[in-house]
Each structure stands twice: as structure tokens, then as C-alpha cells.
Predict the structure.
Amino acid sequence: MIKFEHVGMRYGVGPEVLSDINFILEPGSFHFLTGPSGAGKTSLMNLMFLGRKPTRGLISMFDQNINDLERAKLARIRRRIGVVFQEFRLLPHLSAFDNVALPLRILGRPEREIRNNVNELLEWVGLGDYMKSLPLTLSGGQQQRVAIARAVIGRPKLLLADEPTGNLDDEIGLRLMNLFDQLNRMGTTIVIATHSQHLMDKFEHPRMVLGDGTLKINAPKNWIQKKIKGVF
């Protein structure tokens, strides 16, 4: 799904914020991305979303080397990726319903299918009474749920989420994590950036740990034991 080979990234002429990053994420995997503030999590997510290109090194996604791809081909790859940004990036002139429906409309899905799928998902995330509301009339947590619903409505092949439960209460946060788990079981590869030790301890997924611009992957003991026993 994703392969980074000796990837480095810097902004302008400053020092590298990511240095010699190497990893492979297999299709259908689920990883947490963690590390202290300023470690480079957002920069790494931007590279995986194809929002930026690396300063050096090679990135492969969906069996394609993205470094030299034309803009049109990069756009086609992005359509296979769902993203939850910390700043949400909702379209302010569209209702909650229309924000979530947008990816399906871009794909040309029938309006009846869009209506059924969007209604069901917004009800599931607790926003059934806010479908016609504009983003600026919603709380931060409600806007976050709209952004998450928009990211997952098209069942993307890859889901990248930056602190997706940060503004949510425990009940809603757990419900959304269960939604991510369901997507993962259907084949979506998922990377969730988080500072929450509690969240990572609750779900036994491997952790991509960034520190000083470098990365390592740690797997919890229980995850390793289950994998050996053939549960995964």
C-alpha cells in the first residue's frame, strides 16, 4: 500500500523535519502514528496524502512511484485516500449532509444511493438532527464528526486521520474508533495520528513512533501474540 525508502523532507532551506524515513504499510493494516509535538507527524501525513513531495528518497503508493507522477495521476490516487485533518476543512457554504455527500457526488454515484448512505452515516455518528446545518453553526466536535463521515463515506482504500477523536467525548470517540475498525476489516488501510496513550492502549495496533525526525514501528506484545496464533 505505502512504501517509503530513505525519505527526507524539509521546508525551504531549513533543516530536515523528516530524515531517512523507511517503512512499508501492507494493504489492510492499521497503525497509530505517534510522537512528541514537533516530531513531524503532520509532515509525514502530508507526504502520505500526497499533499507534498519529499525532498529526497522514494515514495510508492498503490504500486506506483509517486515522485514523478503527473498532477492528473496524483489526483486519481488521492481519490482513493480518505483524510481527516485537524482543521476539518469543511466547505462553509455546504450543509453537513452536502459536505459528507461530496466525495460520492464526485464519483458520480446515484443520488438515491447518496441520500441513503449519508443519512445512515450521519445518524450513526450522532448528527441525524444536524444534516441541514452549516459548519459554522456546529460545535468543534460536531464539525469533527462531519469531517470523519466525509472521509469514510466512500470506503477509501487508505484512511489517514490526524487526531480524529481529540475533540470528542469518550462515548463518541469509541464509536468512531469502532467505525474505523469496521472499515479496516473490510480492507481499508488506516493510519491514525494521536498523542493519546489511553487510545493506543485501548486498541492493540502497531505504533509508528516519530522522534527527532526518524521513525520506528513498535507492536504491542498482545498484538504480536495474536499474530503468531493466527488471529490476524
Summary: The beta strands are 2-10, 16-25, 30-34, 56-61, 64-65, 81-84, 158-162, 189-193, 207-211, 214-218. Confidence is low (pLDDT under 50) at residues 223-232. Residues 1-80+157-167+188-232 form a domain with the Rossmann fold fold (CATH 3.40.50.300). The helical segments are 41-48, 71-78, 96-106, 111-124, 140-152, 170-185, 197-202, 221-228.
